[in-house]
Amino acid sequence: MTKIDIGRYGVWRRWSQLTPELAREVEALGYGAIWVGGSPDDLDVVDRMLAATDRVVIATGIVNMWATPAEKAAASYRSLRDAHGGRFLLGVGIGHREAVQEYRAPYEVMTEYLDRLDDAGVPEDGRVLAALGPKALRLAAERTAGAHPYLVTPDHTRRARLELGDVRLLAPEQKVVLEPDPKRARAIGRPQVETPYLGLRNYTANLKRLGWTDDDIADGGSDALIDALAVHGSPAAVAAALEAHHDAGADHVAVQPLTENDADPLPGLRALAAELAL
């Protein structure tokens, strides 16, 4: 299986916060991918990002299997692949038990969705799976180019690499706060970790597998948990925290910059790019 080249680092950003101007700047800084977050159903935003850039890969992080039929996702994949020379990576995932009224067994839904992508012409090397637990990670290894775990730590990355094997892509997301003061950094990071993620069973179950406790998860998250899920510090300190994912076996890290009052993330991304030597 051919592994798509997305570089060592990318930028994760909600689709509603993405603009062609931001995409061009992220590409110019040397990041290898832009992850379009927030479960976009309409992939026109991906088309706009691809049209605005020349090199960077645009990936979905993720298309929700409950919200977007596989056939619709496949049609978008084929259109974007043909128009933009293979710079699109389709990330798909199961979503959350709390968000749907009829929630079948996640593994059953994922395998069925991948079957339908097969039938609709999406190759395995053109898609990745949002995978957290061992079964989902093994499915990603068997049926896709790899895994895009969200809200994880280097400890999870280490475990995920063992499940995926050596050849599959492992591209975890990591939230960062470019702020050296711990209290200010936690004030920025905690709300964006707590809501909605600490109220969603798939994420809390994964955190418990990693050794975090109910007390860590309660009341907005312990300081230690927030520090792990939204790493903070100077650009050099944050860069070192990101490199820890690579040391644990990641091929690529999707960096999600968190800023106070949703301020422009580009100053932080510029400072971080210099430390990462992109």
UniProtKB/TrEMBL annotation:
Gene3D superfamilies found in the cross-reference section: Luciferase-like domain (3.20.20.30)
Domain of life assignment: Bacteria
Any Pfam family hit: Bac_luciferase
Upper lineage: Bacteria, Bacillati, Actinomycetota, Actinomycetes, Streptosporangiales
Domain Luciferase-like: residue ranges: 20-116
Name of this protein: F420-dependent oxidoreductase
